[in-house]
Amino acid sequence: MSTHPSQISLVAAAPERLPVTLPRLADMKRLGEPIVMVTAYDFPSARAAEAAGVDIVLVGDSGAMTVLGYPSTVAVELDEMLVLAKAVRRGLRTPLLVGDLTFGSYEASDEQAVRSALRFVKEAGCDAVKLEGGGRVSVARARAIIGAGMPVMGHVGLTPQTATALGGYRAQGRSAAAAARIADEALALQDAGCFSIVFEAIPSDVAAVLMERIEVPVIGIGAGPATDGQVLVFHDLLGIREGLGARFVKRYASLQEEMVAGVAAFAGDVRTRRYPEDQHGYAIDKDELSSFRGRLT
Ligand code: KIV
User: Fold this and answer.
1) Residue 266 CA, distance from chain mean position
2) pLDDT in tens, 143-158
3) What is the pLDDT of residues 249-270, one digit of tens each?
4) Interstrand relation of 229-232 and 35-39 (parallel, antiparallel or unpaired)
5) Which of 17, 33, 46, 171 could form a disulfide with 88 if both were Cys (CB 3.0 to 4.6 A apart)?
6) Which long-range CB contacts under 8 A does 239-243 form with residues at least 24 apart?
């Protein structure tokens, strides 16, 4: 196959993408380059994130609901998340890979938090971990994990693991006092050394004010346009779910409908004997077949 001259210049213009590092993310913030983050939970979603050139992939505990079918993120175990994270690792080369510490895997003590974070890094090959909340306990655990040599991403605003205590899955920081609490939490996580912080479901104007104080890259989800980057859950943005999801979700595909249509078409073909056709089967030499018949009689 010959190479067209235009292909040569294209290849030259598109050097192989380098792995995304923490300094690269800090540079992106400094340069005002939007940071793209998505969740992924398995090999194909990781391959899609890699091919799309996203910057950060989070093996979110949202996987408890999107791929494991739990009613919330509370029940999922660290061991289950590690299975997902290992599959994602096998599909990724360049995005920074972050593992989400599960509810109950880091709160009890600094030792427990470091042990759980180490499992994400050593067993699953994650580059960093994320933990929810900016209260006293979460900040102490973030500090301990960072002290043990692992980068931590913080997460404030709506923190689904403790949604019950927050009054449900609803926007946070909608009063001056509540917004000030989120500010204190974000600043405490930054002081603890978090390399990045997720802002989830807080008013856009509150996020914009906070952005004046936060020096590390902030990734928003339902926090308006002022943050350094945006994250969406893979299954939300591609429509691999029933129902629309939260207000902040923008849907870029309707794969659940396509999956149902595909499986229904297969079922229809099987039931009407339109599948399989000759091209889907394997042949055997006539003599071999008759010899085979002979062996059976
Ligand atoms: O678990 C998750 O998917 C998350 C993102 C929404 C940030 O925490």
Assistant:
1) 31
2) 999 999 999 999 999 9
3) 999 999 999 999 999 999 999 9
4) parallel
5) 46
6) 240/66, 241/66
Cα separation, 87 vs 78, in Å, equals 14
- 142 Cβ inside 6 Å of ligand 1: no
Q: How far apart are CA 229 and CA 248, in angstroms?
A: 14
- Other CB atoms within a 10 A radius of the CB of residue 75 amount to 15
* Torsion angles phi and psi, residue 197, rounded to 5: -140, 135
200 is catalytic: yes
- Residue 39 CB less than 6 A away from ligand 1: yes
Catalytic one among 50, 107, 132, 200?
A: 200
* Pocket perturbation via mutation, ligand 1, pick of 35, 37, 39, 152 by most ligand atoms within 8 A of CB: 39
- The DSSP 8-state label assigned to residue 156 in this structure reads E
- Cα separation, 210 vs 281, in Å, equals 62
Q: What is the mean pLDDT of residues 217-233?
A: 98
Tell which residue, 241, 243, 269, has the closest CA to residue 255: 241
Say if residues 198 and 155 touch (Cβ distance below 8 Å).
yes
